[in-house]
Amino acid sequence: MEVDIEKSPLVLVEFPGYYRSEDRMLESFGGKKTLAATFSDPSLRLEMRLRPEDLFSQSIYGERISGSRRLILRVSTTKDGEIKKCRILGLPCALYEFRSLADFQYLPIGENSAGEIVNVQEKLLNPDDLSQITSLEEFNAIDVPFIANPTAFSRFDKPLNWHFKEELTPSVNSSRVKRVTNTYRKRRMHGTVYLSAGSNRLPSIPVALLNRHILPGKEAILHQRLTELFDERPVFTTNALLANFPRDRFAHRQLRHGLVQRHAFYCLGGPFGRTWVRFGYNPTSNQDARKYQVLDFRCHEVMSSNLVKDTRRRSRPLHPRSSEDLVIPLNHYTFTEDELPAKGQSFYQLLDIRLNRVQQLIETSPLVPYSVKSGWYTSKTLEMMRSIMHVSVRKLLSSAPPKVEEVSNEKEDSSDYETVAEFPD
Predict the structure, then answer these.
(1) Is the sign of the CA dihedral 241, 243, 245, 251 positive or negative?
(2) DSSP label at 276?
(3) Tell me, what DSSP letter sits at residue 310?
(4) How much is the pLDDT for 405?
(5) Long-range contacts formed by 282-286: CB under 8 A, 24+ apart
(6) Which among 152, 363, 376, 377 is least buried, having the fewest CB atoms inside 10 angstroms?
(7) Average pLDDT over residues 357-374
(8) Burial of 276 (0-12, 13-18, 19+ CB in 10 A)
(9) What is the distance between the alpha carbons of residues 154 and 102, in angstroms, rounded to a whole number?
(10) 220 to each of 215, 259, 262, 361, how far by Cα in Å?
(11) How far apart (Å, rounded) are the C-alpha atoms in residues 170 and 160?
(12) What's the pTM?
């Protein structure tokens, strides 16, 4: 059976309610011109105002669905509900559905002289005696209710399923977060006692949790060795400490997982930043600690030189694969005139800078009161030390023949490499 269908383009709008007057229904959409402009632009939503005459009425929006498989029929029925006549009008080219919730509707209200609640919208839009106003002062003196509604009360058109759970990223004001940067994960403590630059407290004992565990025989020997090292030298950088245990896989693993935390606390910044300091030893009040101070040395000549290895190979593996990986190179924590620094930016303790002129400055320079910025020396003295180190690097670069090291083309897993100095975190 063939059925004739009108080919004129049709748009189907599912009106979210019942209407008595077609004109009032069209007025809620803004009129025929507004409907035609909306239909011509597929990116627009169909806006409907529940109370078109009310300026404070919040709109609801219909979503456009293209290519809907629906059929528009015109059906005539009798009073008994029986179908009398049915005619196919056509297939809609677009469909508008109102599936979202309406925003909160707010009616501006106030009290009159009798104390009754009344609608003050007319007073807001058409205040009295505007024709008699002659100046701006008189206009500002008009008694008008102060009502300022937001453009939209609700942020979303559809309800959301919200699951209340603990905050994954701690807020800046949280008591367990002491810094603003790197708050994407909780610090792995391993029983470490951290000390910020400028702090007045002096840690004297390790975390109580560490003392509850009795060390077995092999760890007890390592514990005794660390006691001897910190008695001889109360301040160590991480690399300088690990260098005392070459090719000792057990020692390197234990130092990373809580053994050194029984002997020292970790300084986060300041002249003694990135160092382990023996419990009870205060380098900020003891002038003899000046040689343990850390110097930040940045050398761009090293980065541009082809005498150093590729940047991907300058760091040590977090999980060593061979005994050779357990040997900390000398230039990772010591500066000498015969070898280039391992990185373009390195941190050296002053006693590990093995240059005669620098050691003379350490011994002969006048001491100043300790400061968080430059420690026991003036900033000028520290710059002189860096200048001497720069001269040594340039001299080594000019005298050494160029040497280009081959870099493997094999794909390396960057997660297997991490600087040794980062393990306390």
Answers:
(1) positive
(2) E
(3) P
(4) 44
(5) 282/202, 283/234, 283/235, 284/370, 285/370
(6) 363
(7) 88
(8) buried
(9) 9
(10) 5, 10, 12, 40
(11) 24
(12) 0.49
